[in-house]
Amino acid sequence: MPELPEVEALAQFLREHAVGAVVGRIDVGALSAVKTFDPPVTALSGRDVTGAGRWGKFLGMDCGGLWMITHLSRGGWLRWIDEPSPTPPKPGGKSPLALRVRFFTPEGATPAIDLTEAGTKKRLAVYVVDDPELVPGIAKLGPDALDVTEERFIEIMRGTSQRIKTAIVDQSLIAGIGNAYSDEILHMAKVSPFANTATMSEAKTAELYESMRAVLTDAVARSVGQDAARLKGEKRSGMRVHARTGMPCPVCGDTVREVSYAERSFQYCPTCQTGGKVLADRRMSRLLK
Ligand SMILES: [Zn+2]
User: Fold this and answer.
1) pLDDT band for position 284 (cuts 50, 70, 90)
2) Centroid of ligand 1 to alpha carbon of 191 (angstroms)
3) pLDDT 10s digits, 19-74
């Protein structure tokens, strides 16, 4: 799932590649992905692309005051196609294509962006709005993880009482962080995923803030300028604990552990984060019964 650094890189990618082009035909591959009806997606055709933006994990393309905004969700991605096939996709087919936006560039090229979504759970969302704040998910966002001040961050975290792993990915508290980067941030700050936000000391919460900035700033620096197709690999290569169950922690050498619940899992290092304690993994516990 793309998080703040990847979406920031995609916004930058659109600024470099799409701004200055004219929107051509829009092909809808998955009707369910389009969440707004008025104006219709076809209203974008014929408009100049004038900018791109990011709100938390939402990506937006400004077409002269009319915005196309997307939330890629867990299985979604944006691909840049230099020479798309002229045939429109079949709506409702098995293709992962949710939406294709074609462009005419000033140089005479006709590239496109494809919004695709893997998996059976279709959550990718597209909105066409005059004002980004009209997207309900954007209106509800808390301050951005890279804009929030340390003082405000401490106030927000200590003002809620829940597991830090849950709080830091709650977009209404802090915007932009998902499962992968939260694993990395907690690992760098040496905080247990199960630590309670209300009882964590102010000094530790300040350390968490510093780690959040360090992890995200580093990931943005590595992601921006990467081709959209390479962003996933770049994201994975920078991870120290996330998706590295069973591998050695690069800081202390302990084995990275995992906690699984429902359809998700997260990773942490016991020595770095939980005083050596292995957290109960509900899936493992069930298997052992
Ligand atoms: Zn460690």
Assistant:
1) low
2) 11
3) 999 999 999 988 899 999 999 999 999 999 999 999 999 999 999 999 999 999 88
* Distance between Cα 7 and ligand 1 center (Å): 28
Q: Are the beta carbons of 36 and 109 closer than 8 angstroms? A: no
CA of 174 to the centre of ligand 1 (A): 26
How far is the C-alpha of 277 from the C-alpha of 162, rounded, in Å?
20
**Tokens found for residue 281:** 């993994």
Rounded to the nearest angstrom, the distance between the alpha carbon of 219 and the centre of ligand 1 is 20
pLDDT at 266 over 70: yes
Residues 66-86 as b/e (b if ≥16 CB within 10 A, e otherwise) read bbbbbbbbbbbbbbbeeebee
DSSP 2: -
Give 170's contacts (C-beta < 8 A, 6+ positions apart). 142
Q: How far is the CA of 258 from the centre of ligand 1 (A)?
A: 13
At 69-83, the pLDDT tens digits run 999 988 899 999 999
Model pTM score:
0.93
